Amino acid sequence: MRKTKNRLKGHELYYFASCPFCIKVRLALWWMEFELPLKDILSSSKNKEALLMGGGKTQVPCLRIEHEDDDVQWLYESDDIIRYLKQQLARKKALRED
Ligand SMILES: N[C@@H](CCC(=O)N[C@@H](CS)C(=O)NCC(=O)O)C(=O)O
């Protein structure tokens, strides 16, 4: 297994282990070598409550994104999350090449 290199600050992934859409997103995270806190909503009612209160529904996967202006975004839909992660990876690569 490759070593995790890219720490995603201000991001959390709400998920549960057997959810296929969550597995898809976690695989993408692994491929992109991103590291971020994982919030299991089945093993923790506190995590489930935070997702419901913040995002408005308990659907997973959901990526909580804390923007630099402290605005918080709750991004649902595995395809949208993966698209966002790809953008972040491209951004990080561009910054490294500067
Ligand atoms: N289209 C969504 C489907 C996500 C989905 O169906 N998640 C299920 C778990 S596998 C879920 O959270 N269901 C419970 C709910 O919607 O509250 C995606 O691609 O992320």
Structure in words:
The chain contains 3 helices and 6 strands, in the order E-E-H-E-E-H-E-E-H. It has a 4-stranded mixed sheet with strand order 4-2-5-6, sandwiched between helices. Strands 1-3 form a two-stranded parallel ribbon. By secondary structure, the chain is α/β, with parallel strands linked by helices. It has helices at 20-31, 45-55, 78-97, and strands at 6-7, 11-15, 34-35, 38-40, 62-66, 72-76. It has one domain (6-97): Glutaredoxin (3-Layer(aba) Sandwich), CATH 3.40.30.10. Helix 1 (20-31) runs parallel beside helix 3. The structure holds glutathione.
CATH architecture: 3-Layer(aba) Sandwich
Number of domains: 1
Multimerization state: single chain
The outline comes out as globular
SS content category: alpha/beta
Number of extended strands? 6
- CATH topology, what is it called? Glutaredoxin
Molecules bound to protein: glutathione
Highest-level CATH class: Alpha Beta
One letter per element, helices H and strands E, the order comes to EEHEEHEEH
Strand order of the largest sheet: 4-2-5-6
- Portion of residues in helices? 40-55%
List the total number of helices.
3
Question: pLDDT under 50 segments (min length 5)?
Answer: none
Strand residues, percent:
15-25%
Our Rg estimate from Cα atoms comes to 13 Å
How many angstroms separate the termini? Answer: 29 Å
CATH homology superfamily: Glutaredoxin
pLDDT averaged residue by residue:
94
Descriptive labels:
single chain, 98 residues, alpha/beta, Glutaredoxin, two-stranded parallel ribbon, 3 helices, binds glutathione
